[in-house]
Write a structure and sequence with these properties.
Helix content: over 70%
Largest sheet: none
Radius of gyration: 48 Å
Number of helices: 2
Shape: flat
Structural class: mainly alpha
Length: 155
């Protein structure tokens, strides 16, 4: 009987330990689950805050652009009215400015092309002069070689 009682006590203690371990595991799992949910909620809120901030920034940018465009148009109309300009006069002013800029651009490009052509011509002349000098030295060397060769082999 004592052995059976000891075995029953041992079994009860083992069962009690197993239940305590199970309960501790469940508490840990619940705590982990709650922490994950809290983390996911924080990530979701942060992500949504970013989306809202980006949308607000885009909206403010669009409003600023529209305000600037409206202000620019109002200024243009004011200038035209103040100077009693017609659309034709404005077109002539813009065309004159385009022509001046085009002429400045083309003259700069032409000057650059001329400078490039001069440099290329100079480089070509230098290369030709170097080639002629090399040919002259080669001809002189051949003449000297022929002279000494004639002296050696003629006697």
């Amino acid at each position: 009987m004592a052995t059976t009682k000891a075995q029953i006590n041992q079994c009860n203690v083992a069962q009690d330990n197993a239940m305590k371990q199970f309960n501790a595991g469940e508490k840990n799992a619940a705590a982990k689950f709650n922490a994950e949910i809290k983390n996911q909620r924080a990530q979701f809120n942060a992500s949504n805050r970013l989306v809202v901030a980006q949308a607000n920034a885009q909206w403010r940018q669009n409003v600023a652009t529209l305000n600037s465009a409206a202000k620019n148009e109002a200024n243009r109309q004011h200038v035209m009215t103040a100077n009693a300009m017609t659309q034709s006069t404005m077109d002539q002013i813009w065309q004159r400015e385009r022509d001046v800029m085009s002429m400045a651009w083309k003259s700069h490009e032409s000057a650059a092309d001329r400078a490039n052509a001069i440099i290329m011509a100079q480089m070509s002349a230098d290369a030709q002069a170097a080639a002629l000098k090399a040919q002259e030295r080669a001809a002189n060397s051949r003449s000297i070689g022929n002279f000494f060769g004639g002296l050696l082999f003629s006697g």
